[in-house]
Amino acid sequence: MQLVRSTSDLLKTISAHIDQIKTVVSDIATTATSQAKHLDGFKTTIHEIDVSTQQTAAMAEESKAACHSMESEAALLLQLISQFDLGEETSSGTHEASQSPSPKNIVAISRMRGMKSPKPADHARAEPSK
């Protein structure tokens, strides 16, 4: 009978150890699930940072292209403006143009502003009276 009792005690001890192992494995599974959720959060955050970085890079490229375009347009505008002779100042304090803009200049300015080229009749109206 002693052998039966000692076997019973050993089985109870083994059962208790199995319950402890079951608890530890359950805790490990819960922790692993929590870590997986946190990793998904990090993954989402890193993806959002990546998208934001790509958008910023695209905007920087667009800004660079716009700057180059503006630089070209400014150079063209300076070139066009330099062709005008403002003449001498009159007694009333205004400048009198010694020449009117050429049709070529009017077409170039119109194109730069994104407008249609003026018709010859429009040019005649655009010339200042002398």
Automatic annotation (TrEMBL):
Region: Disordered, residue numbers: 88-130
Query: Could you tell me where the Basic and acidic residues compositional bias lies?
Result: 119-130
Reading the lineage from the top rank, the first entry is: Bacteria
Residue span(s) of domain T-SNARE coiled-coil homology: 1-63
User: Which residues fall in a compositionally biased region of kind Polar residues?
Assistant: 89-103
Alphabetical keyword list = Chemotaxis
Would the keyword Nucleotide-binding be found if you checked this record's keyword annotation? no
Q: Which family does it belong to?
A: Belongs to the methyl-accepting chemotaxis (MCP) protein family.
Q: What is this protein called?
A: Methyl-accepting chemotaxis protein
Organism source for this protein? Answer: Rhizobium mongolense
Organism lineage reads as: Bacteria, Pseudomonadati, Pseudomonadota, Alphaproteobacteria, Hyphomicrobiales
